[in-house]
From TrEMBL:
Keywords: ATP-binding, Kinase, Nucleotide-binding, Transferase. Residues 144-210 form the Thiamin pyrophosphokinase thiamin-binding domain. The keyword Methyltransferase does not apply. GO terms for molecular function: thiamine diphosphokinase activity. This is Thiamine diphosphokinase. It comes from Heyndrickxia acidicola. It comes from the Bacteria. NCBIfam families: thi_PPkinase.
Length: 216
């Protein structure tokens, strides 16, 4: 199945090396200034989304020249450009959606982008969706049991409750294990944990949980 990589319009300095994520089966999508990030990286976007109110006339002409499929919207709308692109990506029945350039810069955009991961249509899509920058990888989870593998360049793992509480949280294979623990929104109990073997599991029975994999 096809992977979809969405490049938002956040600060370029937070982008990882995008060539690491090049695959034969990847659709690259630019969102507003994210189209320029792709062009700068030497990657040709297959689609572009946005109102493009943050680009100059010259940059808009470059986007038109480099991308044949452009979905342009009026600046006055109810959704952000990234939300529109993510909704489209979910409808494509892809196996994985990775979002880049969605962190850093304005705090309102940063928080709104992360909370997109907790929308009902995202959580129920059964697609692996994550936000990735140079230091972090963020994903949201519904109740269940999940296996994770050690990532040397993302050794810290934090679990953050987005719902008012998360029940039955169990961590196995971690430096700081848990067994059937309830954690509430706002707690720092599950910040900066680490795997102590090649793989581990986490599970919970109720709530919505963010997992952040980070490096210093």
């Amino acid at each position: 199945m096809t992977d979809i990589h969405i490049i938002a319009g956040g600060p370029e300095q937070y982008l990882p090396d995008l060539t690491r994520f090049q695959r034969n089966n990847v659709i690259w999508v630019g969102v507003d200034r994210g189209v320029l990030h792709l062009i700068s990286a030497g990657i040709e976007p297959e689609m572009a989304f946005g109102d493009f109110d943050s680009v100059s006339d010259e940059e808009r002409m470059l986007i038109s020249a480099k991308c044949n499929r452009i979905k342009q919207y009026k600046p006055e709308k109810d959704e952000t450009d990234l939300e529109l692109a993510l909704d489209w990506a979910i409808q494509q029945n892809s196996s994985c959606i990775r979002i880049f350039a969605a962190t850093g810069g304005r705090a309102d955009h940063y928080f709104a982008n992360v909370l997109l991961l907790t929308r009902q249509n995202v959580l129920s899509s059964h697609v692996q969706i994550s936000i990735i920058d140079k230091q972090n990888q963020i994903a949201a989870y519904v109740p269940g049991e999940y296996s994770i593998s050690l990532m040397p360049d993302r050794k810290y793992l934090s679990f953050i409750p987005i719902s008012s509480r998360v029940e039955g949280l169990t961590l196995k294979g971690f430096k700081y294990p848990l067994e059937n623990k309830q954690i509430t929104r706002g707690t720092s109990l599950c910040i900066s944990n680490e795997l102590i073997q090649d793989s581990g599991t986490f599970s919970f029975s109720k709530g919505i949980l963010l997992m952040v994999r980070s490096q210093d």
